[in-house]
Amino acid sequence: MSSINQVTVLGTGILGAQIIFQTAFKGFHVTAYDISDDLITQAKQSFSHLAEVYLKELPGTTRAATQAALDRISTTSDLSQACKEADLIIEAAPEIIELKQKLYAQIASLAPEHAILATNSSTLLPSTLAPSTGRQDRFIALHFANTIWIHNTAEIMGTDQTSRQTKDKVIEFAKNIGMVPIVLNKEKSGYVLNSLLIPLLNAAGFLVSEGYADPETVDKTWKIATDSPLGPFEIYDVVGLKTAYNIIATAGKAGDEKSARLSQYIKENYLDKGKFGIASGEGFYKYPRQS
Ligand code: NAD
Questions:
Q1: What is the CA(93)–ligand 1 centre distance, in A?
Q2: Using CA atoms, how far apart are residues 215 and 185, in angstroms rounded to an integer?
Q3: Is residue 153 within 8 Å of residue 193, measured between CB atoms?
Q4: Residue of 283, 289, 288 lying closest to 215 (CA atoms)
């Protein structure tokens, strides 16, 4: 196993819970931190739920293995307790820059000197958080995808202050927890995946909102021409139309007129009608109800 043995995850929400369970499932001791005991109680329910999901969705998973994973997770709402023995601290706190900066300033003095800090932030460049960490050479972005046990990429992106040793240790850790490391050479908003995906989804959306083609035609073209299993509008439905709307509306508010029209189109035709994508049973397409 790597020189990283003891892992702490800050935040036990959607992604935090997944990172915690996956890391424990792969044999690491994990300390899960959240800001109240109520949230810790909820987190324990999330871990048990994930244990069931792994049993159902990952062939070959045994109940003994998921139970062992649960047994390797300890929980606390005491930040100093959470940080004090960590080799790696993964931050999966809400996507609010001031909140994250404040959190890093706290853990800077609580974590052992050698500990590496990693942010799971989807949209904030690590350089915006690095100065708060007090250890810029040991700070990096380690970005997981939702449904980590299936979509097992870990995008790894340092700032120009991140040391080679930190990057190498985090790459090794990512592999050890069953991820495929996707390493960027330098900072890029959107990492690799969203740098590709967002322009594709925008282009597909504009074809429809500007009246050139319907979603089925766009998807059919993409799938036949590129052998892709999903078309852009099927991907919209997976991502969820609220998330897509928020990103596109932000670009619209920043002055991009086509984005403003596309966000309005999604709002009027889908969100206002309760069509949010696969999770709600209907988005651009209809889906059988999930059990
Ligand atoms: P979430 O809202 O589900 O969870 C955030 C958790 O952080 C909550 O449990 C909350 O109680 C806790 N929290 C609040 N204040 C905190 C503090 N001061 N210190 C520690 N924890 C605190 O959010 P999420 O969707 O899990 O996202 C968390 C991070 O992961 C964000 O940076 C987001 O960009 C990133 N991310 C999310 C996804 C996704 O699909 N949801 C995918 C990749 C990355």
A1: 4
A2: 36
A3: yes
A4: 283
- DSSP for 147-162, please give it: STTTS-EEEEEE-TTS
Ligand 1 neighbourhood includes 93 CB (under 6 angstroms): yes
Is the pLDDT at 239 greater than 70? The verdict is yes
- Per-residue pLDDT at 290 exceeds 90: no
What confidence category does residue 180 fall into, taking pLDDT thresholds of 50, 70 and 90?
very high
- CA of 99, closest atom in ligand 1: 18
User: 263 in ligand 1 pocket by Cβ < 6 Å?
Assistant: no
Model pLDDT, residue 288: 87
**95 CB within 6 A, ligand 1:** yes
**Average pLDDT over every residue of 91-103:** 95
pLDDT, averaged across the chain = 96
- Give the CA-trace dihedral at 240, 241, 246, 250, to 10 degrees: 130
Q: Point out the ligand 1 atom lying closest to the alpha carbon of residue 123.
A: 34
> For residue range 128-140, what is the model confidence (pLDDT) as tens digits?
999 999 999 999 9
Cα gap 217→166, rounded to integer Å: 46
Q: DSSP letters along 45-61, please? A: HHHHHHHHHHHHHSTT-
Using the atom order of ligand 1, give the atom closest to the CA of residue 43: 9
Residue 107 has pLDDT above 60, yes or no: yes
Ligand 1 contact via 228 beta carbon (within 6 Å): no
Q: Ligand 1 in contact with 154 (CB < 6 A)?
A: no
- What amino acid occupies position 89? I
Kindly give the distance from the C-alpha atom of residue 217 to the centroid of ligand 1, in angstroms, as a whole number.
36
Ligand 1 pocket member 280 (CB < 6 A):
no
